[in-house]
From TrEMBL:
Family the entry assigns: Belongs to the small heat shock protein (HSP20) family.
Protein name: SHSP domain-containing protein
PROSITE patterns: SHSP
CDD domains named among the record's database cross-references: ACD_sHsps-like (cd06464)
Annotated Gene3D superfamilies: 2.60.40.790
Chain ranges of the SHSP domain: 21-132
InterPro entries cross-referenced by the UniProt entry: A-crystallin/Hsp20_dom, HSP20-like_chaperone, Small_HSP
Signal peptide per UniProt: none
Length: 145
């Protein structure tokens, strides 16, 4: 049985694989939500070596980095190689009102979870109202006497 070989179709397939791999390695999917007085960030880092994960804060920029090393099997013929390798990096600019010095981080089942507390000064609070004589009437009665 004869098969037809189309070199352009094969080149298109290989190019699509390479471009998809580059896009996938450049992305770091995440979920972000607020839970009471904390923000919680879940970042997918499947296959990342836990020792390479780095979270840093510089001013108002939160940076997350991780490394996925290539597989080192020798003398194999790859049939598909779609899992991206290399360094993942993502930067987020965060607003004021977060306690960035109190971030906690865990890495479980390929998911990095950061918990960022809201700073005390940014939390909503009630202002207590003092009941008594208005200040203007006190000043007027003191100057009259």
């Amino acid at each position: 049985m004869a098969t037809r070989f189309d070199p352009f179709q094969e080149m298109d397939r290989v190019l699509a694989q390479v471009l998809a791999s580059d896009r996938a390695s450049a992305t770091m999917p995440m979920d972000l939500y607020r839970d009471g007085d904390h923000y919680v960030l879940h970042v997918d880092l499947p296959g990342a070596d836990p020792g390479t994960i780095d979270v840093s804060v510089d001013d108002r920029t939160l940076t997350i980095r991780a490394q996925r090393s290539p597989r080192t099997e020798h003398d194999v013929q790859w049939l598909a190689k779609e899992r991206p390798v290399g360094t993942y990096a993502r930067q987020l600019t965060v607003g004021r009102g977060l306690a960035l010095d109190q971030i906690s981080a865990t890495y479980t089942d390929g998911v990095l979870t950061l918990t960022v507390p809201v700073a005390e000064e940014a939390k909503p609070r009630r202002v207590e109202i003092q009941h008594g004589t208005p200040a203007t009437s006190i000043a007027a009665s003191t100057s009259a006497g």
